[in-house]
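Duplicate of #3305? Posting structure anyway:
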């Protein structure tokens, strides 16, 4: 009983890894969020992971719609307001996806710690 030195080392390592993952998620582009969302859904906490997947897909669709509005012949398919609306929607969905990716990761780590603690008590 009590805190062992290995517990402190584990907490330091996990804190460092968590910080690095959060920095990486913050700098992740919309098209990479889908992969991260799927991985965290499978590995961490599926209920919130599905929300992250949903927002990742919506962000990707909005970016595709925004980019589709830029025609190669010099004639835009959408008005400037429509294009800005798609861009804003893409940013909002990407921000929500990043938030849910973080929530999924944190809940997965809490669940993992709880399961490890339960196993060690038996």
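Output from current build:
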């Amino acid at each position: 009983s009590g805190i062992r030195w290995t517990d402190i080392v584990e907490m330091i390592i996990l804190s460092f890894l968590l910080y690095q993952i959060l920095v990486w998620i913050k700098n992740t582009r919309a098209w990479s969020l889908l992969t991260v969302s799927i991985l965290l859904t499978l590995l961490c906490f599926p209920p919130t992971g599905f929300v992250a997947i949903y927002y990742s897909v919506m962000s990707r669709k909005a970016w595709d719609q925004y980019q589709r509005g830029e025609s190669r012949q010099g004639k835009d398919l959408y008005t400037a307001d429509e294009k800005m609306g798609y861009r804003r929607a893409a940013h909002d969905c990407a921000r929500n996806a990043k938030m849910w990716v973080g929530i999924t990761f944190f809940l997965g780590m809490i669940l993992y710690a709880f399961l490890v603690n339960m196993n060690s008590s038996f």
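Confirmed duplicate; merging threads. The chain has a mean pLDDT of 85. The chain is about 85% helix and 0% strand.
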